[in-house]
Design goal:
Elements lengths: L1 H19 L3 E5 L7 E5 L6 E8 L4 E8 L8 E9 L2 E10 L14 E10 L4 E9 L2 E8 L3 E8 H5 L1 H8 L4 E3 L12 E5 L7 E5 L4 E14 L3 E13 L7 E9 L2 E10 L15 E10 L4 E9 L2 E10 L2 E10 L6 H7 L7 E3 L12 E5 L7 E6 L5 E10 L6 E9 L8 E8 L4 E9 L17 E8 L9 E6 L12
Antiparallel strand pairs: 1-2, 3-4, 3-6, 5-6, 5-10, 7-8, 9-10, 9-11, 12-13, 14-15, 14-17, 16-17, 16-21, 18-19, 19-24, 20-21, 20-22, 23-24, 25-26, 25-28, 27-28, 29-30
């Protein structure tokens, strides 16, 4: 019995001694390893390791005990690459003696080897990158669709099982400067900004089958003037340019215009902006309707590549007119027109001046500015059975006072019957006064309209609330046409 107890005690002592005699490694708790401590590793951890990462998105340093899977033997392993805007550097050093993981895995130093670096999105392969120490030039087809060129560590070049974790394909590597040049492709002009104010000669990758030039213009003037234009040139894959030639999409209606002009070609430096410039003005004139204002006019001039167009659009159960100029490829082509317009109907076209006559409704005058210093005639859609004129003045939330005169076509949301209506409100920090006159004969709203004078003050006083502070302590003196009122709402 005593012998058995002594044996068990010896085994326990051996196990304790064996556990205590495990490897000791340095460890750190933050990403910069600013402080280090020595820790006892578990018996199945066979190495100490140091790790350092310097990538375009994250940097860190790490010290720890390591499993055999992480460190198969003492030594170091480097995984690094650079291409385009992507950069990755991960260095691991393994050792198998107590607190041996003191390796200073500092940021990699630059080497002397230079390689071509291709941007996989723009197919521009003219940029060059200086590799880090222990890197070679490489090229590969990423996912069989994109060509990548840049620098890579020797391990990524020689070990396919390693490279496919990062690129899905093996790397083809070489060790002399600029030895990874792309397969000779087109030379195209590229632009440095959205106005194409300067140009650069670019060697395209093998995926670029065409040179392309593109101009874009957009204009709208409904709730204020908005203009945008851009120009671009570059290399283009077959998915963008299916064949050499020009592609034009343009339209004008109401206060909106849009033009996209793309030209594809297949010879070196063929993509100047001549082929993508907006076409010159043509002689065709068309009726133009604003589907958001119920108004049409016969004063739009089409470009040389445009024809007159018409369609009745459906929006929120209301039928609104669409009349204007469009490029011919939008005619009777719903699959294309639906990409540019928010309706599903096919666009019908004709090619003689003012051939797209809308269903003639009431004719009204319309102001061209907020003071109505000039007017133009418009044709109303069937959904707008009234002409209207309005004059208003007011101020919102302590802003400067405003005054406005408007004329145009009106639907039932504005006019329910012929006649005039005065509207006013005043609650302290904001006030509004407006007079709307509705009529239902051609050009009945032609007479001049003046900004309405404020009606005389009455004797009635009401509480007024500040819309910013939500305070309702001020007194407001009403006009002779006003009464006290209250309402609640969500801010």
């Amino acid at each position: 019995m005593k012998t058995s107890v002594q044996l068990l005690a010896s085994v326990a002592l051996f196990l304790c001694f064996h556990s205590a005699a495990g490897l000791q490694c340095l460890s750190c708790s933050d990403s910069t390893c600013s402080s280090q401590t020595s820790v006892n590793c578990s018996s199945w951890m066979t190495h100490c390791q140091s790790q350092a990462s310097y990538a375009s998105y994250n940097n860190f340093t790490h010290l720890s005990c390591a499993y055999p899977l992480s460190c198969k033997s003492a030594g170091s392993e480097l995984i690094s690459y650079t291409y385009g805007s992507s950069s990755f550097y991960f260095n691991t050093a393994c050792c198998n003696s107590n607190d041996c993981n003191t390796a200073n895995l500092s940021a990699p130093s630059a080497g002397s080897l230079q390689c071509y670096s291709c941007d996989s999105d723009t197919h521009n392969c003219t940029s060059k990158v200086t590799c880090r120490d222990q890197e070679l030039c490489f090229q590969t087809n990423y996912n069989s669709t994109k060509t990548l060129h840049g620098c890579a560590s020797e391990g990524l070049c020689s070990d396919y099982s390693l490279s496919r974790r990062f690129f899905r394909e093996p790397l083809s590597c070489c060790n002399t400067s600029l030895c990874n040049g792309p397969v000779a492709g087109l030379q195209c002009w590229t632009c440095s900004d959205h106005l194409c104010s300067s140009e650069t000669l670019t060697n395209c990758s093998s995926e670029a089958t065409h040179c392309v030039s593109n101009t874009f213009e957009s204009h709208t003037c409904e709730d204020g003037v908005y203009n945008y234009s851009s120009s671009s040139r570059g290399c283009a894959p077959a998915s963008l340019c299916t064949a050499a030639g020009s592609h034009v999409v343009s339209y004008k209606y109401g206060s909106r215009s849009y033009g996209e002009h793309m030209s594809c070609c297949q010879s070196d430096l063929c993509n100047d902006l001549t082929g993508a410039r907006a076409p010159s003005a043509g002689s065709l004139r068309c009726y133009s309707c604003n589907p958001y204002m119920f108004e049409c006019s016969a004063n739009v001039s089409c470009d040389a590549r445009e024809v007159c167009a018409y369609v009745h659009t459906n929006e929120s159960s209301d039928t609104r007119p669409f009349f204007g100029c469009v490029s011919e490829n939008l005619c009777n082509n719903p699959s294309l027109s639906q990409k540019y317009f928010d309706f599903n109907d096919s666009v019908s076209c004709c090619n003689t001046s003012n051939c797209n006559v809308p269903d003639l409704g009431l004719q009204c005058m319309k102001c061209t500015d907020s003071s109505c210093s000039s007017q133009t005639s418009v044709i109303c859609s069937k959904q707008a059975p009234f002409c209207y004129s309005s004059a208003s003045t007011g101020s919102y939330s302590y802003s400067a006072p405003f005054s406005s005169i408007r004329k145009g076509c009106a639907d039932a949301s504005v006019c329910t019957a012929a006649g005039s209506q005065f509207v006013s409100s005043n609650h302290g920090s904001e006030y509004y006064m407006g007079n709307v006159t509705c009529c239902d004969t051609d050009f009945c709203n032609a007479p001049n309209v003046s900004v309405i004078p404020a009606p005389p003050a009455g004797s009635l006083q009401c509480y007024g609330c500040d819309s910013y502070t939500k305070q309702c302590s001020m007194n407001v003196t009403c006009s002779v046409m006003e009464t006290c009122s209250s309402a609640s709402g969500k801010s």
